[in-house]
């Protein structure tokens, strides 16, 4: 069981070193995380962007620019396209967004001719270290799919389970978070949750138990389960929180960060390589942990 983001960093350091490629790498915060990962032996780096700015920032950070492959590109589109090409042609194992828009990067990722889109669904997984929860908690999807269908929720869960398997998890408990535990035919989140929990054969290959509909409290609190006499397998000890919409996931995640002082690490999965989309507001530890997570998931 993984309890802390530092566990991800230590795990990545024990694995074979990977190579990260950064699109529009002329950003000091991003380069600080990338150079930290390099110093800790997690990943080498290909830096795509304004070569002059990249070299200047690396020097300011006390790094030798010669330790990194720098590819000069000027426009955001050119940066994204060249970074995706590095992955597609096998020179990098995973991708990170630098100083460009998410839409610009993802447009190149999903391009049918030159991108790195896989055969399945692309979704977002975010891991949270919360002081009063005994293990990392995976929340999905609070970053990519706004109003997932039942079929998409199956894909979202499978993407999350595959990621957790690479982290060494055996039996996985996944909670379908809703506003209540009863099924209401007028509330799609509850009917989808009930259907997902009944798909036992679908989850066998992942060794994953899916339960719900369930409120957030009973997904993560044994005390709440006892009080409300909720006895589903996995209740009170979820590894994965499957949220019904993007807004719910985004809200829960922001609440954990800003009210609960949680730490986080997240990646996009389902493409041919993991993708890191960091925010400027993310702590340095979170950025490094996201790189570590992507490095592990890339295996």
Key traits:
2 domains, 299 residues, 12 helices, five-stranded parallel sheet, 41% helix, alpha/beta, six-stranded mixed sheet, elongated
What can you tell me about this protein's structure?
α2 links the parallel β1 and β2 (43-49). The model has no long low-confidence stretch (mean pLDDT 95). This protein has 2 domains: 5-118 and 271-297, Rossmann fold (3-Layer(aba) Sandwich), CATH 3.40.50; 123-258, Isopropylmalate Dehydrogenase (3-Layer(aba) Sandwich). 41% of the residues lie in helices and 19% in strands. The protein is built from 12 helices and 11 strands. α1 (5-14) packs across α12, α2 (28-39) crosses α12 (284-297) and α4 packs parallel to α5. A 6-stranded mixed β-sheet has the order 8-7-9-6-5-10, sandwiched between helices. With 299 residues, it is of the alpha/beta class.
């Amino acid at each position: 069981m993984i309890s802390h983001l530092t566990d991800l960093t230590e795990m990545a350091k024990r694995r074979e070193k990977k190579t990260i490629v950064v699109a529009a790498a002329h950003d000091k915060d991003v380069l600080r995380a990338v150079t930290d990962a390099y110093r800790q032996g997690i990943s080498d780096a290909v830096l795509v962007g304004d070569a002059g700015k990249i070299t200047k920032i690396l020097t300011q950070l006390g790094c030798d620019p010669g330790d990194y492959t720098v590819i000069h590109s000027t426009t955001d589109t050119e940066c994204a396209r060249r970074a995706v090409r590095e992955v597609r042609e096998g020179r990098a194992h995973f991708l990170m967004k630098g100083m460009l828009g998410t839409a610009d990067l993802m447009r190149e990722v999903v391009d049918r001719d030159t991108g790195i889109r896989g055969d399945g669904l692309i979704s977002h997984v975010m891991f949270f270290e919360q002081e009063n929860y005994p293990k990392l908690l995976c929340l999905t999807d609070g970053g990519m799919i706004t109003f997932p269908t039942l079929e998409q929720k199956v894909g979202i869960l499978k993407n999350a389970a595959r990621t957790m398997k690479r982290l060494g998890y055996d039996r996985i408990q996944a909670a379908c978070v809703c506003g209540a535990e009863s099924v209401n035919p007028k509330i799609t989140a509850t009917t989808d949750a009930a259907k997902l929990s009944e798909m036992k054969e679908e989850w066998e290959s992942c060794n994953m138990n899916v339960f719900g509909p369930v409120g957030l409290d009973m997904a993560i609190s044994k005390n709440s389960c006892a009080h409300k006499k909720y006895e589903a397998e996995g209740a009170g000890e979820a590894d994965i929180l499957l949220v019904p919409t993007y807004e719910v996931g985004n809200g829960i995640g922001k609440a954990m960060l800003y009210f609960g002082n949680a730490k986080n690490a997240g990646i996009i999965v389902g493409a041919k390589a993991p993708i890191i989309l960091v925010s400027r507001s993310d702590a340095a530890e979170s950025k490094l942990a996201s790189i570590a997570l992507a490095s592990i998931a890339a295996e």
